[in-house]
Design goal:
The protein has 16 helices and no strands. It has helices spanning 2-17, 21-55, 57-71, 80-93, 97-125, 131-134, 142-162, 164-171, 175-199, 204-228, 243-268, 270-277, 280-316, 320-356, 364-390, 394-446. It starts with a helix and ends in a 10-residue tail after the last helix. The model is unreliable at 1-13 (pLDDT under 50).
């Protein structure tokens, strides 16, 4: 037994250490991310039935819808996060450590100012918002939901600042460390929610406070530790804040910001439309199906995440051969994950029964729609990550803006006619259409035939 184990370890080490230094880093990070995210997925699957049973399905649907609304904030960093990711990687590729630290410092303090203004605005507006109407909930919950919205909003705003550490870790080709922090936050949340189920009655405020605050606390403590130790050379300092670098970050970042808003419309308005058209309980049905099937797309994101910064490094150094080889391997992974998604479809009725019992019923027709959703989403993401890494996002900007503009009226129409399945299939059509455009652009850039908008 030990002999075979030793052979397996030797084989694994040989595979991991073979190839370009950039590929070796990516493979090691992918392995670490898969291990960590596997733990994160397991935690997530335990957390769903735990929270549903704690607050019951309708309140859980309200929580999901509210968190989706507040999650819009994640895109209101005006592109600073994505701008930092690319500019930081470029600076390191050129051996400019001090410049990388200036980018970090400028991003932290610029984003901090933006978030401060957003918080002030929300404190002014929130008393005038009827969250019961917004979330299609009972009017007697209005005061509770207003308080919950305030708690969730504040912690999401703080998360804006603290999660920049994940951006820096990822841009420095260490996304596994960022994933470790996220997994730790999820694990602690699970433990606290478990304790709450034993000592309290179902309480939406407790649930929202725990799920919002825990990741922020974990990331904040981690930021202090990293910037005092191994990342001290990149620690933010106000004296390094530079307005010139704000414009540098924003030049690329504002394009990412507009793209993210468009993507946000396509990915995060579904819960809002569902709760208004079909009721909060249908949000729960949609999200448990979404959580199972997008587990596959999460696996792909884990693989693609280290590649974003690796693509930036390769493109900065003109290493097109490495990019082409890597892209072919990623396309093969997409085929394998497509087969895996179809496999999940066939076992989904059994899995939902085992996972949730009789609490939530997911129609098999919705599972079929989710299968097409995931396969098409991964196909599109192959090329968006590559184009993002190379900074070729102008065409993506136009396509995403047009798609976002027409998505809401279409999703309302298909939601009324076909329900949850119609909403899901609409996203699939958009993913296929945009994926084809990005695939063509990628081919042109790698073959050095891209001109005009195709090369921007």
């Amino acid at each position: 037994m030990n002999k075979y184990l030793i052979r397996y370890i030797d084989f694994l080490q040989n595979v991991l250490n073979r190839g370009h230094e950039r590929s070796v880093k990516a493979k090691k990070n992918v392995l670490g991310l898969l291990a960590l995210k596997g733990s994160g997925i397991a935690i997530s699957f335990f957390l769903v039935p735990l929270t549903i049973n704690y607050v019951e399905p309708t309140q859980y649907g309200i929580w999901i819808t509210l968190s989706s609304l507040v999650a819009w904030l994640n895109y209101f960093d005006i592109g600073f996060g994505h701008g930092l990711r690319n500019k930081f990687s470029e600076a390191l590729a050129n051996g400019e450590t001090e410049k990388a630290r200036i980018y970090v410092s400028t991003t932290y303090f610029s984003l901090g100012a933006v978030i401060g203004l957003i918080l002030i605005l929300f404190f002014i507006v929130n008393p005038f918002l009827n969250w019961a109407n917004i979330l299609n909930a009972k009017q007697e919950m209005a005061t509770e939901l207003s308080t919950l919205a305030l708690i969730v909003f504040v912690f999401f705003c703080l998360q804006f600042i603290f999660q920049l550490l994940s951006t820096v870790l990822t841009a420095n080709h260490e996304p596994a460390k960022a994933s470790l922090l996220q997994t730790l936050g999820s694990f602690i949340s699970l433990l606290i929610i478990f304790v709450l189920t034993k000592i309290t009655e179902g309480n939406l405020l407790y649930l929202g406070a725990v799920l919002s605050a825990t990741p922020v606390v974990v990331m904040g403590i981690a930021g202090i530790w990293f910037y005092k130790t191994s990342y001290k050379q990149f620690s933010p300092s106000f004296r390094l804040f530079n307005l010139v670098y704000v414009r540098d970050l924003m030049g690329l970042g504002i394009q990412f910001f507009i793209i993210n808003i468009s993507v946000l419309v396509m990915l995060n308005t579904d819960n809002i439309v569902i709760t208004q058209l079909l009721g909060p309980e249908k949000v729960t049905v949609f999200n448990v199906a979404y959580k199972l099937f997008t587990m596959i797309s999460m696996i792909f994101i884990l693989i693609a995440t280290p590649l974003w910064s690796a693509y930036t490094d390769a493109y900065t150094k003109g290493d097109f051969d490495w990019i082409k080889r890597t892209l072919k391997n990623v396309q093969k992974i997409w085929l394998l994950l497509g087969v895996l998604t179809i496999g999940v479809l066939f076992i989904s009725p059994w899995f939902f029964k085992l996972w949730l019992g009789d609490t939530v019923h997911v129609p098999f027709t919705l599972s079929i729609a989710m299968t097409t959703y995931v396969i098409s989403y991964i196909w599109m993401t192959i090329y968006t990550f590559l184009l993002n890494g190379m900074g070729k996002i102008r065409l993506q900007l136009y396509v995403a803006t047009i798609a976002g503009a027409i998505y809401i009226p279409l999703v309302i129409y298909f939601g009324k006619i076909l329900g949850l399945e119609g909403i899901t299939y609409l996203s699939t059509v958009f993913f296929i259409f945009t994926g084809i455009i990005y695939w063509v652009q990628t081919k042109k850039i790698l073959n050095k035939t891209a001109v005009g908008l195709w090369d921007k």
